[in-house]
Amino acid sequence: MTAADTIAIVEKLIAFDTVSRNSNLQLIAAAREMLSAAGANLRFTYDPKGTKANLFATFGPQTGGGLVLSGHTDVVPVDGQEWTSDPFTAEVRGDRLYGRGAADMKGFLGVLLALAPQIAKLDLRRPVHFAFSFDEEVGCTGVRHLLSDLQNAKIRPALAIIGEPTEMRVVSGHKSGAVIETAVRGREGHSSAPALGASAVMMAGEFVALLTKYQEELASIRDDFFDPPYTTLQANVISGGTAVNVLARDARVTWEYRALPDRDPAEILSVVEQEANAAIVARYRGGAPEAAFNTQVLAAYPGLAHNAESPAVKLACAVAGSNRTYAVSYGTEAGLFQRSGIPAVICGPGSILQAHKADEFILLQQLDQCAAFLERLIAEWNDESVLLQ
User: What is the pLDDT of residue 383?
Assistant: First the structure.
């Protein structure tokens, strides 16, 4: 494998518009062709409509255990972003490769595919698996199907390395998160008589203020392993109303939490709902008995709890030559692997600071570092003297 091989594959992957609202089947077909040519055993799982697929490829013996190298195929939209080049046509400029997904995370997938022929030639004593999933960006949806399929097929990997962008640092913990929508119901009326109705927009504004107040309370519970070292609440989208002189009947607030992994997310929702009803709704019921908040979780993923004794952490640190690990506040598939009983750690090329932005890029050096890391990782994994605890 050469650096040029890796770049060519990453460029090919970026050319597929796999924004989460679209199908990823063309990318999966391209990966299937490359992995089949390398002699991998392949499994596929699909979304209910059959328009998206996960790919699970195995090299080596068809036995229990196995090292999973996992990444997602979908990317975030480019709508409204000001790119200086076509986001789905990769460009190398100097020491950087630009394109949507370059860092998050087609760079990692490209390195895996470039390594496939090399891995296939090894006399593997333990399985090495590639896991390519769909819809990670909208709640880690695809990997849930993949993990369910593995469980049904009695395929139990020993550990997983998730290749999200960490600048090749070993990340052993991340927060849980959720996308939540609160629908606000008020009562229409003339704005000159607000007491005879209920403005859902005003209610929504008070709801956002409530989130801010609760955020301040949550900030007192700290874990300095994370940055920021506490659970965060954030309202990012708010809509409602029809005219400035009409009390709004409906409004919506879309918000999120990113919680420390040892926090109970259900408690967060419960506190917000109870406080909203007691402190806000009760005051509007005089003019609008139907005034209400209706909250539903649109997507959620579990956190990755740090475990210094995890075999995934130990192996990744040994290969990386690192005696420490890091935590991140963004979500990944790692928490779902851990929840399924598969120890997981995160280590991949690129910076999260470049992800989801216009002119997303990855340093070419990071691709080289990732390839070297994975080569060492697989060699270490294949060493029978390495015992999994």
Answer: 84
